[in-house]
TrEMBL record, chain A:
Record flagged with keyword Transferase: no
Superkingdom of origin: Bacteria
Pfam families: BPD_transp_1
An annotated GO cellular component: plasma membrane
Protein name (database record): ABC transporter permease
Species name: Bradyrhizobium guangdongense
Protein's cellular compartments: Cell membrane
TrEMBL record, chain B:
Cited Pfam families: SBP_bac_8
One Gene Ontology cellular component annotation held by this UniProt entry: periplasmic space
Localization per Swiss-Prot or TrEMBL: Periplasm
Source species: Bradyrhizobium guangdongense
Name of the protein: ABC transporter substrate-binding protein
Family designation: Belongs to the bacterial solute-binding protein 1 family.
InterPro entries: Bact_solute-bd_prot1, SBP, TAT_signal
Lineage start: Bacteria, Pseudomonadati, Pseudomonadota, Alphaproteobacteria, Hyphomicrobiales
Key words, A-Z: Periplasm, Signal, Transport
Amino acid sequence: MSVTTLSSPVLPQRQPNWLVRLFDYKPFLIAMCLAPAIGLLAVFLTYPLGLGIWLAFTDTTIGQKGIFVGLDNFQYLLSDPLWWGAVSYSVIYTGIATFGKFALGFWLALLLNNHFPFKSLLRAIILLPWIVPTVLSALAFWWIYDPQFSIISYLLVDVLHWKSSNIDFLGSPWPARFSLIAANIWRGIPFVAISLLAGLQTISPSLYEAAMLDGASSWQRFRYITFPMMMPILAIVMTFSIIFTFTDFQLVYAITRGGPGNSTHLLATLAFQRGIAGGELGEGAAIAVSMIPFLVFATLFSYFGLARRKWQQGEAND
Amino acid sequence: MRNDITRRDALALGLSAATVAATGVAAHAQSAIKAADVPAPKLPIEKGASLRMLRPVRFVQADEDVFRANAAKFTKETGVEVKVDFVGWEDISQQTAVTANSGAGPDIIIGFSDAPHIYVDKLIELTDVADYVGKRYGGWLPLAQRYGKKNKSDTWIGLPFGATAGPLIYRKSILQSVGFDKVPEDHAGILDLCQKLQKAGKPAGFALGNAKGDGNGFASWALWSHNAALLDSDGNVTINSKETIAALNWVKQLYPTFIAGTTSWNDVSNNRAYSAQEIALTANGVSLYFSLKNDPATKAIADDSEHQLLPKGVAKVSPMAGLTLNAMVFKHSQYPNAAKAFLQYMLEKDQYEPWLNANSGYWAQPLAAYAEAAVWKGDPKVAIFKDTMNSTYYDGYAGPISTATGAVSADYVLIQMFASVATGAATPEAAAAEAEQRCKRYFRRQR
């Protein structure tokens, strides 16, 4: 039997139209997919940031368009004792508050990582300062620090009779500065504690079991397991904490508005005071821009400093 | 400890209906206000006109109620819809700035004192309406002229609707107990009184914290009563003067006699301290008195309280400025005639007098004839507020009003100058020099 095969007719291949070909073109597809994100970033992130930076180089005021004045605003700030005061206090505020938040937050996280009754309830309670709107907690602190009606003064003077006069928390510079730092620590502890608690719970219990079999003390377990394993999360949390603290506005503005005198101005509150309340948009923007180097330095220091892998592994730094 | 009434709470305590009772003003009282027969300017209202306006939120509920009722009357009589939005005092400046810069938004804004001077290029002239109501109601008072007219001209750019002041309020019985019938007019006498009040355990207290109203009020008074001023009449910054140093030295002596914590006081702190009987002397608007009077628990304090104009010191008259409501019409309005007609209507006796009375003395009139309004004839302790707009002092005294004069007050430059000396953080000379540097920065483009 012979088999005859018929040669199949060669059909002319249809060329895809230009639109199909365009959408088959990989670089175009990448560009198309990224365009919405780039557009959103440009409109909502880059434009405001760019405008803010541009304003810093102009003498724009509320109500009047400004002209480009180069570095004039920055030159003025360098001769302005109030700006230097705000820089100093911003650094002090960030340094002490961050240290306080991390010391107490880490301690709380370690406590909450243990097994005890009502653990979930306690965790929820610890989150409260974080849940409450900042302005509300600022108002509460404003009452707590009130020179005439402070609950602390009331307890010490009228109830316990330990003091003869009310405490003037906000009436002079250093007490006012430390009062604000205390409020910031109170507000920031939950963020640190909960974030670090999440980190603690990722550490494998087998590491502790092995260490215990080797006879490691609780301090050694903390020093050689907990702390190194927590470094990456510590670095991230500290970076965020520094940024949030350095740029804090609400607590200070609601409690002291930068007073007494100008002793409690942070750079953020001073920028608002000059730029919005005082109407000097250019100068206010310059103050805000002047925060960027501090933030970049603090971020790089905390992130790269704390996240060094060799340190985490217990080796010497190089 | 007790929760004391804030300034804003004060007249809101049912005053909308109780205003009449509180001030002793009878709603049906015969009007004593004389209106001259003057031809009104011709303002043909544009076809299909409607208006939108912003004004600061009411301090007294009756303020809003009567204002809205007057606007509704205007709509009924002219067919022009008027939408009135009330915004927070802290927000009105920003909203005015956005409106002025964008050339869109409300046709009319009632801002505060210097607002028309900041946006003068964006506003329409209101001279015709101002001349008409001025002639009709006995003339504009000095503070109204200062804030309403463009600097060194007779061109009106704003129409002042009223002003509120912060004179002294004190406890009569306590002052008498330390040998005073009233607060002395001279600085040495005031210092002596405050020292005695402190010894008696009922000190004075004046805001030296970043308080927009009370803090700036005290700082300005301390300056002006020493014949010191932010500017001279040509607009030169004169804050660093021997008069200012004298004022700073005086406040340095005075501050230790205050109740503790005044450098952290905001605008409600003195109300609370006075209401709680912690202090015997402070400066405040009429609201504090009314809050005390309308609460049975504190009525005795109100009965024992007296108001007094801020002491003269070495000035010729009491140096007290009033926070002024100042109406402006924007060039971008499609219905400028309707806007002007509306403002004119609101300043006419039939509308303005009920509104003035409803405010219980919180706002004082800008036009002389309204001094005869019933509100000033009720409670004698309120009558002192009647002449608020007779003041020749204003924010930025004694120079031209500008953006910078408002900025100096908004940035608390004067308060901080006094606070830094009071707390010992700076010498008077250093504080004055620092304030001068800051002021010169603000005024660098105003000349």
